[in-house]
Amino acid sequence: MGGFCRAIACLGLVAAVATSCGGGKSSSTTTTLTTGTTVPSVTSPQSISSTTTTAPSSTSTTAEALTVRVTVSPDHVFVGTAVTFTVEIRGPGTGDSEDVHFGDGGTSGANAGMVKCGDTARADNDGHYEHAYTAPGTYQFTDEVSVIGPPPACDREDVTGTATVLVAYPMQTAIGGVVQSPTGNIACGIYYGSTPDDQKVHCATLSPPQTADMTVSGAVKSCSGSTCNLGNPGFEVPALAYGSATGVGPFLCVSAITGMTCSVTGGRGFTISRAGIELIGG
Q: What does CATH list as the number for 14-169?
């Protein structure tokens, strides 16, 4: 393959946020982001997804439960790229407040003020929140929604929706584009030159011998066996710590214990590991 010979520095970190809400804003506790740390593991991009949280049936005042669904686009980005979170609230009652945390200390929120028992409007609402992260890491977005249920009970319900975003540093273009897994079994070259022929990702595993080549469209060509061009990354090629990501242009590669996942903008790509090569994103 040629070119498995340059270094890359990539940082990985995790931010965790605990929120509390009920009748107004409450204090939040944020884990301080620190660079230069290694995250022990991370889910691959195709499994990073939003969650839908439903209020426990014991607090629901009707047969219909309150739900909060969060989706994020895109769910893995480079530092400085804006991410849009869409929150869908569905259920009975009157919206009282929202308490939003982006996972890096940034917050947003709205309080409806005093809500009287007897207000019977639905809590249905679609909200959009945009945020750009300034440091690499895996961040959890949370939106805690507080609703006053319909009469006669007018119970308060607090439901939280979450989503996860992976943020990576761009690969430094001054020194080539090759990284390897901490074990050294996987090596990936990420190239984004001036012509289509120079824009690709090439990954290889020594055991078993196999390769995967991906273009900017997300099309993947794989090879297995002794005839594959594995390349030689060399001892000087830096390891991409588990939980870290790097890339250039539309390409992004994420290192995890389960393998190396590389994709293009839109989510198409592959995961390469000792178990084989798996296509992702359709």
A: 2.60.40.10
> Which tens digits make up the pLDDT trace of 173-204?
334 578 889 999 999 999 888 888 889 999 99
Task: Give me the residues paired with residue 132 across strands.
Answer: 82
What is the pLDDT averaged over residues 61-73? 81
Evaluate whether 186 touches 4 at the Cβ level (below 8 Å). no
Q: Which helix (H) or strand (E) holds 18?
A: strand 17-18
Task: Give the pTM.
Answer: 0.54
Using an 8 Å Cβ cutoff, are 220 and 271 in contact?
A: no
**Torsions phi, psi for 223 (to 5 deg):** -145, 145
Alpha-carbon 155 to chain mean position: 34
Looking at residue 247, what is its pLDDT? 84
* CA dist list (Å): 77 to 46, 74, 102, 247: 13, 7, 14, 10
What's the one-letter identity of residue 148? Answer: I
Listed in sequence order, the residues at least 6 apart from 98 whose beta carbon sits closer than 8 Å to its beta carbon are 21, 87, 109, 110, 127, 143, 144, 145, 146
Outline which parts of the chain fall under CATH 2.60.40.10. Answer: 14-169
Average pLDDT of the segment spanning 74-82: 78
CA distances in angstroms from 82 to 74, 90, 98, 142, listed in the order given: 9, 26, 21, 17
Residue 69, beta-bridge partner list: 52, 88
Peptide bond into 208 cis (omega under 30): yes
DSSP secondary-structure letter at 141?
Answer: E
Distance, CA of 47 to CA of 92 (rounded, Å)? 31
Least confident of 49-58, 76-85, 185-194: 49-58
Let me know: does 260 contact 188? Beta carbons within 8 Å. Answer: yes
